[in-house]
Amino acid sequence: MKTSARQIVTLLTVALAGCGAAACGTINEKLAGGISDAIPAAIGGLPADAPPRPGTAKYDEYMRERERKRLLPASERGEETKPAPAAPGTR
Prior knowledge:
mainly alpha
């Protein structure tokens, strides 16, 4: 059986597309975290008060501070940890 140039080109095109799709999945996994941090909150990015990402030094500091505040008595915690008052007429 003789293979034609068209069959070889088709096979190479399909193989290249498959490799490209596989590579795209691993690249996107690594870039998604960094790119999403650059998107402004007004168009769907992370809000300014979002906690840091796990695995970073800021995240470790954030968790230590959160644990420290959790162990404080409620009267000493401060204003930022108090829940917002409910609106009148809601339960």
